[in-house]
Amino acid sequence: MTRAAAPFRFPVSDLLGDPGPRRQVGIDTAVDWSVELSRVGPRLAADLTLEGASGGVLVRGRVETAVTHTCHRCLIEWTEPRILAITEVLGLDDDPDGYPLDGDVADLEPVVRDLVLLDLPLAPTCRPGCLGLCARCGGDLNTGSCPGHEEEVDSPFASLRDLLEP
Ligand SMILES: [Zn+2]
Ligand SMILES: [Zn+2]
Fold it and tell me: What is the pTM of this model?
């Protein structure tokens, strides 16, 4: 065994059948998955039922983890719990997009990772109407740490001054 631990892998040869028996399994492991502005972890837990079905293995249950998002406007970070339901069949030969079995082992990592990552927002936003950062000074427009630059921007001489300054 080259792997020190394989928390997502479960032997299922005893479950293959139609209908096959079922078994409860649990996952509790460290994960560090990220996409763009969202990071999943540091831990993930799942309570799952594995059940033989149509020559494959039906996976049902609940996945719990946490996601740390970075607001795409103001770059503030926050962490929120995620609880997701999973229903997926592994090992169906007639499903080219499905998840294969690895011999008689169900590797649930791709299934669970896809479930969690596909649930992430494309552009995390810390709150509705987040104003973001000032493009001139980088101040957070939500907290007023930008002093405001309206006078310069609105001045009819602003563009002229830009031209004259080296
Ligand atoms: Zn924000
Ligand atoms: Zn500013």
Answer: 0.81
